[in-house]
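2024-03-11 09:14:02 INFO worker-7 job=invfold-0412 stage=load source=structure_tokens
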């Protein structure tokens, strides 16, 4: 077999190997085998110079033609394989957008948060503004400015978490009333939800609990405004038929002070065995009163010109009553089995 015949045979072999390659990787092996640096065809081309002069031209031409033909076949087949491989990959990686997504568990509003939202929404509807303040308070805002002087029982170690440097964990949200009044001129209409802290722990007391306070200061506000506002809130919260009654009480920073009871929203007072009101027909709901003139004076308001009323309630306790929960501590344990019931 002379050189040109050998070249022709290599070419035929190579073309059939190209056609048989099933992947781009196999195709690369074929290229290395027939056109690579140590391929027979490559060596033939390198050694053309050693051939007798009359053969060089013919062998050189055949080798170049064969190389070009193999290269063309390689590149055509490579294009076909690449397209097929891309299609296969797209098919394999395709996302079915009609499949349902991964469901994430939905959270719940905490029962206390529901009560807070409802009460705050009611007062915002009346034009009150939401005000908030720090949970770490100074002695001044938590006590002194609220007419609770040094030595008052409310300051006892048993009731208050004292921190260093005259700071306390606020025992009520009332400091926010003082901060609000110091920051603005009357009229003031604010509703103040927030966490407060006292050294207490039993089924109806926890060291941290929630309060909602409200404060209104304006010209001509009287106890009648206080009663009307809070009775409307009670009807909004417990239902239109809810009755309210006010009992005299005592708070350091209001004078006069009252406590408001609401008629039992379960039995309305008609069931002596009612589990919610224990037959009393009434439920304690909140404390309130006319802002003590001493407090108004402390923040620079003229008590001759302005009067105000303030009220405070415990949304945790309100949630206990509404949802029939016997132990306040359940609210703060974060047990999902408990929370999912609401
Ligand atoms: Zn009842």
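2024-03-11 09:14:09 INFO worker-7 stage=emit residues=342
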């Amino acid at each position: 077999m002379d050189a040109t015949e050998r070249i022709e045979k290599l070419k035929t072999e190579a073309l059939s190997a190209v056609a048989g390659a099933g992947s781009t990787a196999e195709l690369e092996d074929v290229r290395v085998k027939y056109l690579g640096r140590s391929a027979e065809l490559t060596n033939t081309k390198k050694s053309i110079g050693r051939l007798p002069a009359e053969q060089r031209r013919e062998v050189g031409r055949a080798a170049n033609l064969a190389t070009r033909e193999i290269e063309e076949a390689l590149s055509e087949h490579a294009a076909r394989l690449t397209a097929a491989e891309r299609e296969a990959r797209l098919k394999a990686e395709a996302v079915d957008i009609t499949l349902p997504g991964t469901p994430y568990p939905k959270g719940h509003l905490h029962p206390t948060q529901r009560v807070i939202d409802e009460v705050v929404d009611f007062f915002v509807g009346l034009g009150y503004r939401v005000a908030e303040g720090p949970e770490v308070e100074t002695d001044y805002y938590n006590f002194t400015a609220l007419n609770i002087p040094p030595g008052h029982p409310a300051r006892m170690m048993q009731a208050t978490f004292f921190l260093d440097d005259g700071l306390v964990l606020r025992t009520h949200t009332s400091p926010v009333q003082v901060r609000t009044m110091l920051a603005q001129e009357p009229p003031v209409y604010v509703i103040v939800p927030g966490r407060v802290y006292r050294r207490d722990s039993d089924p109806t007391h926890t060291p941290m609990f929630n309060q909602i306070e409200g404060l209104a200061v304006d010209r001509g506000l009287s106890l009648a405004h206080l009663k009307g506002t809070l009775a409307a809130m009670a009807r909004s919260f417990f239902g239109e038929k809810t009755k309210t009654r006010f009992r005299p009480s005592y708070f350091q920073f209001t004078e006069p002070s009252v406590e408001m009871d609401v008629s039992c929203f379960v039995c309305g007072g008609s069931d002596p065995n009612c589990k919610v009101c224990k037959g009393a027909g009434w439920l304690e709901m909140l404390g309130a009163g006319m802002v003590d003139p001493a407090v108004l004076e402390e923040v620079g308001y003229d008590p001759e010109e302005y009067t105000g009323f303030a009220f405070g309630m415990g949304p945790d306790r309100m949630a206990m009553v509404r949802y029939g929960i016997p132990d306040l501590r359940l609210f703060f344990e974060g047990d999902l089995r408990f929370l999912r019931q609401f």
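2024-03-11 09:14:09 INFO worker-7 stage=report msg="The pocket of zinc ion is lined by residues 264, 266-267, 271, 274, 276-277 (CB under 6 Å)."
2024-03-11 09:14:10 INFO worker-7 job finished
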